Amino acid sequence: MYKKSEGSVLLIAIFISLVAVLLVVSMSSLSTGNVKQISNYHMGKLAYYASEAGIAEVTNYFNTSFLNWGKTLDETSLPVTTDVQTLDNGAAYWVDNITYTENNKIAVIDLIGKYKDSYRKVRARIQTSIPKYFDDYGLLTDGVITINGNKTLYMSIHANDGIILSGPTSTQNDSIVTQSEDPDAEEPDPETNPIGGYVDPIEVPLVPVDDLRTFTQTGINLDISQADLSAQIANAPAGSLIYIGDATNSSNDSITITGDMQGKVIFVDKGIVVNAQGVQNLSNVMIISSAGLTVNGSVDFLSSHDDQLDTVFACNNDITLNGSRIFKSLFWTNGSFRQNGTSMAGRVISQNGITFKGNFTLTATSKLYDFGTFDNVASLSSWQQVSMDN
Questions:
Q1: In the prediction, which pLDDT does 204 show?
Q2: Angle of CA points 118, 121, 124, to nearest 5°
């Protein structure tokens, strides 16, 4: 009887030992699995964060120059599979694909982040828009605004270096006149302080002359000395990019344009006089000079696009506008702007100052038409993680 009892105890002890061993093995396996799961989660997070860093680089790349928008992946300097961008923590990212949708207004970017053995793929949508300062201000300068004569303002104006106004000033449509020269001035208010209020200095955009030269040189190339220059410009297809050089240092420094120019972008690589003549009002054109620009003529400057301002004059030096008529245009210069004569005007953006000589009405013009030549602001509209197989 004693031996039987002893055998039962031994069997129970062996069973308990086996159960204990199984528990230890199971706990060890479970612990190892948890550690591996946590490690995979951590590596996956680092890979995801790397792909987010890639989104920031792509957005910054598009904001560097308008020439970068529309490029295929092979044409960019962005990191790709064979040349990845490695971060300080050892994670890396690269751009897998770029496509453009909605009439080239949206870029869809596939980016891949990697950390050790973990990969994460993110699909981002980046959109562009014309910077607000093109639409928020009728007159904007880093210098001084000087207006002599009666003036009626339906849009706000701002000068970083101060405002000089002589003659009656009427502000309409909640417009204000602001400056950044005198920080002790009161805050602007359309009702109580519409003129002279202080705001922090506003960034005034430069005309990207070099980029615009490069851009237009991809289109039709002409020379200022050509006898049929006006006909060549008039007969160019709608939306043409036209570069006009000066290979012979010609004495000719003028071009004549008229009517609806059908969205043409014209770059003249010298200082020029633009004569807007004819029986039809001028519209739907962007003209850029690598030096100075004088605008003469007898016709009004209007628009071919409803609720959009589509006539633009831009240059690297000064703009002089002569005549008394309607100028629903954007005048954009890296120098100064001067207008001689009574006018109803669109907008002026100038680095070195704005001067109006004569009675002046600043109309409440519509949004600026995008010729694809402005350094638009690229911003992230949405993004999501997608399968690596997508």
A1: 94
A2: 150
Sequence-ordered alpha helix ranges (H) in the chain: 2-64, 133-136, 209-216, 229-235
Task: Establish how many alpha carbons lie within 13 A of residue 355's alpha carbon, considering only the half-sphere containing its beta carbon.
Answer: 11
CA distance 120 to 240: 42
Q: Tokens for 270, please give them.
A: 């010298």
Provide the pLDDT for residue 193.
95
Q: Which two tokens stand for residue 299?
A: 């016709």
Instruction: Check residue 35 and give its pLDDT.
Output: 45
Class of the domain covering 2-131+376-386: alpha beta
Residues of the chain with CATH 3.30.1300.30: 2-131+376-386
Q: Report the distance separating Cα 326 and Cα 280, nearest Å.
A: 13
Q: CB–CB of 158/140 below 8 Å? A: yes
- Distance between CA atoms of 139 and 151, rounded to whole angstroms? 13
Nearest to 252 by CA among 264, 267, 266, 268: 268
Please give the Cα distance from 158 to 145 (Å, whole number): 8
Q: How far is CA 75 from CA 69, 217, 244, in A?
A: 11, 18, 26
**C-alpha span between 372 and 362 (Å, rounded):** 26
Mean pLDDT by 10 residues, the chain (390 residues): 56 66 59 52 87 94 92 95 95 96 92 93 92 87 93 94 93 95 95 95 94 96 94 95 95 92 96 89 95 91 88 96 85 94 80 89 83 86 87
One-letter amino acid for residue 112 of the chain: I
Helices (H), 93-228: 133-136, 209-216
In angstroms, the CA 8 to CA 10 distance is 5
Distance CA 194, CA 199 (A): 12
Contacts of residue 261, defined as CB under 8 A and 6 or more positions apart, other chains included, come to: 282, 283, 284, 285
